[in-house]
Amino acid sequence: MSICEDFFSSNPQPTNYDILSNKIKDFCQLHKHDKVVLITSGGTAVPLERHTVRSLENFSQGTRGSSSAEYFLKSGYAVIFLYRLKSLEPFTRHFSDINIFDWLVVDNENESSQIKVGSQYVSTLLPILKKYKEVMNSGKLLSIPYISLSDYLWLLRAACNALSSLNGKALLYLAAAVSDFYIPLDKMPTHKIQSDNGAPNISLHLVPKILEPLVHSWVPNAYVVSFKLETNTSLLHSKARRALEKYHHKMVIGNILQTRKYQVIIVTENEDYDIVLSEEEKVQNVEIESKIVEYLCKKHDLFLNS
């Protein structure tokens, strides 16, 4: 048994796995003639106990994934959005830092009173609400939540299995911040770790490299894009190139933690390409994801027509 299969055999499916995997299958069947992108977004939790009170977090707000989803939808893709619960989502991300009650007013404070959006906020809310309603009415967005690392990997494999029949029309945009370490279920205490017993001795195991079976077995004909995040500029390019050579997928998007909102590098088999926001674009609040998705859509079309 491979290390990857051993992970799945020793970590149970999410409790709602059948419901969510069937939703993904139905969505892929509905859009079998369309280009479909699977976007993974947000961080993962690694439980320290079976009845989880504490967990190790690979934190990510989900900014890149949620904003990219909007640009893929704008480009005509159907989108499966596999995201960490309570991380940013398409459209609602624009209002993540507001208190909704500040935007609402009560009209006629009596038995027939109504709730309305404050007039000063309508111009901000209306265009985003229209886009959201248009997308939801088209049936082109499926959001699938997860919390733990185990849930994420189970649902990722389910999505890949459903997408495999789409062959090259399937694009995988693996932007989630996935933990490199976990605690096997058989080494995890059942109940809350007690501080009375002193500092716990926790042994972390390496998470199997899922990209290898994903590229070669789960969706061998899909256009697979992975991400590489570093804090050291001198390491980024070589590690992105090494990942591409190791797993033989189509593209690695590399970014530095400190500059990820304004600059990325694109590494493919035959090309290295920088996407950088100009000072003017920064002032205009251009999102770098718009440029990433535009570039990626062109590459995907070339792949489909080759």
Automatic annotation (TrEMBL):
UniProt superkingdom = Eukaryota
Tell me where in this chain the DNA/pantothenate metabolism flavoprotein C-terminal domain is found. 166-291
Signal sequence range: none
The record's Gene3D superfamilies line, in alphabetical order, gives: CoaB-like
What is any one GO biological process for this UniProt entry? Answer: coenzyme A biosynthetic process
- GO molecular function of the protein, one example? catalytic activity
InterPro entries in the record: CoaB-like_sf, DNA/pantothenate-metab_flavo_C
User: Could you say which protein family the record assigns here?
Assistant: Belongs to the PPC synthetase family.
**Protein name, UniProt field:** DNA/pantothenate metabolism flavoprotein C-terminal domain-containing protein
